[in-house]
Design brief:
132 residues; Macrophage Migration Inhibitory Factor; four-stranded mixed β-sheet; 2 helices; 4 strands; 29% helix
Length: 132
């Protein structure tokens, strides 16, 4: 189950979070060629100077970081498209300059992801990981 962790250095309204999460889930599903029911999203909000990136020249205008735990097996193109897609969404919804963002993808074996019903297998193109 991918865990997509979005962090930003300011408070957000629920009206920003709900559509953002829905679009991030769809983006992941489309690029990574998988279903959506197993995608977990967390949004963490920090004070202006409690989240920083060395290259951010204006932290007060926004800094955003993504840590995504994903199953191994995707191509570099898929991973790069996902990272750039997340940046586009954070810019669109939260107005953060893309140069003040950082995305980290960490790959795990499918068996590292557990739901009530089962643990996930390795990623396969066009799969639905919750199908039996």
């Amino acid at each position: 189950m991918p865990h997509l962790q979005f962090e930003i250095n300011r408070s957000l309204q629920d009206e920003e979070k709900v559509p953002f999460s829905a679009e991030a889930r769809q983006l992941f599903s489309q690029i990574m060629d998988t279903g959506t029911d197993h995608i977990c999203i967390s949004i963490r909000e920090f004070g202006t100077h409690n989240l920083s990136i060395g290259r951010a020249t204006d932290p007060e205008s926004g800094v955003a970081v993504v840590n995504a735990d994903i199953r191994e097996g995707r191509t570099l193109k898929q991973r790069r498209d996902l990272a750039l897609g997340f940046m586009e969404l954070m810019n669109k919804y939260w107005g953060v300059d893309k140069k003040q963002m950082y995305v980290t993808l960490t790959e795990h074996k499918g068996e590292d992801f557990h739901l009530l019903e089962k643990y996930l297998g390795g990623w396969e193109e066009g799969e639905d990981p919750l199908a039996d």
